UniProtKB/TrEMBL annotation:
It is found in: Cytoplasm. Belongs to the guanylate kinase family. ATP binds at residues 23-30. Essential for recycling GMP and indirectly, cGMP. GO terms for molecular function: ATP binding; GMP kinase activity. PANTHER family: GUANYLATE KINASE (PTHR23117:SF13), GUANYLATE KINASE-RELATED (PTHR23117). InterPro entries: GK/Ca_channel_bsu, Guanylate_kin-like_dom, Guanylate_kinase, Guanylate_kinase_CS, P-loop_NTPase. This is Guanylate kinase. HAMAP family: Guanylate_kinase. GO terms for cellular component: cytosol. The gene is gmk. Its EC number is 2.7.4.8. It catalyses: GMP + ATP = GDP + ADP.
Length: 217
């Protein structure tokens, strides 16, 4: 019997994944998303527009596009936002064009957005969105992480805790839930989800051509 010889084949073209990450404040979403961006060359973060003021260390077009309320309303009216919502006292929204370009080019986009944004994206792009909810091990643990992080006053922490309970009530609207007990494990789980979703048949738009070629010999 002869050993089959496999010729190297060109990568099979795929459509990008819209990877939504939501969580209550302090559950570890930022650490997880940073680790993914560092290790996944084909993944970029969607930069949202917001009407809130920049914080120290935040840069225009890197962390957010900082815009006025009328500017965000005008973008929404012109259909330039894939979704938008009011979170705390401000508007937040996702610019459409960079997402559409990336998906077509086979690159993935990650979204750090709340449950309202996830709901709208899922309704508008059900085949593209893969959503993950990051849960803290417990509310007590969440509060202690917020206190340890030392970024917020007691009043702000109380507000974030109240909002956390509301945010967590939407866990059932997500495709996956990751309980962030160990950051390392959570990062590995989110990567496993992304890697498997990239391989879904429906996303591999080059598969039909590959099979046709393979059958042609
Ligand atoms: N719907 C929607 N939500 C967004 C968007 N951008 C950011 N958010 C959410 O708005 C909330 C507040 O974000 P920030 O103002 O950056 O504050 P933060 O300190 O990062 O808040 P946490 O991430 O909740 O700790 C977070 O839950 C974000 O996930 C967006 O474009 N659309
Ligand atoms: Mg955040």
């Amino acid at each position: 019997m002869t050993t089959p010889v496999f010729q190297p084949v060109a990568p099979i073209a795929r459509r990008g994944v819209m990877l939504v990450l939501s969580s209550p404040s302090g559950a570890g979403k930022s650490s997880i998303s940073r680790a993914l961006l560092d290790s996944e060359a084909e993944l970029a973060l969607s930069v949202s527009v917001t009407t809130r003021d920049p914080r120290p260390g935040e840069d225009e077009a890197i962390h957010y596009f900082f815009r006025s309320v009328p500017e965000v309303e005008a973008m929404a009216e012109k259909g330039e936002l894939l979704e938008w919502a009011k979170v705390f006292e401000n508007y937040y929204g996702t610019p459409r064009q960079p997402v559409e370009q990336a998906l077509q080019a086979g690159r993935d986009v990650m979204f750090d957005i709340d449950w309202q944004g996830n709901r709208q994206l899922k309704a508008n792009a059900p085949d593209d969105v893969v959503s993950i909810f990051i849960l803290p091990p417990s509310l007590a643990e969440l509060e202690s992480r917020l206190v340890k992080r030392g970024q917020d006053s007691a009043e702000v922490i109380a507000k974030r805790m109240a909002k956390a309970v509301d945010e967590i009530s939407h866990w059932g609207e997500y495709d996956y839930c990751v309980v962030n007990i160990s950051l390392e494990d959570s990062i590995a789980q989110v990567k496993a989800i992304l890697h498997a979703e990239r391989l879904k048949r429906e996303r591999r738009i080059g598969m039909a051509a590959f099979v046709a070629d393979a059958l042609a010999g």
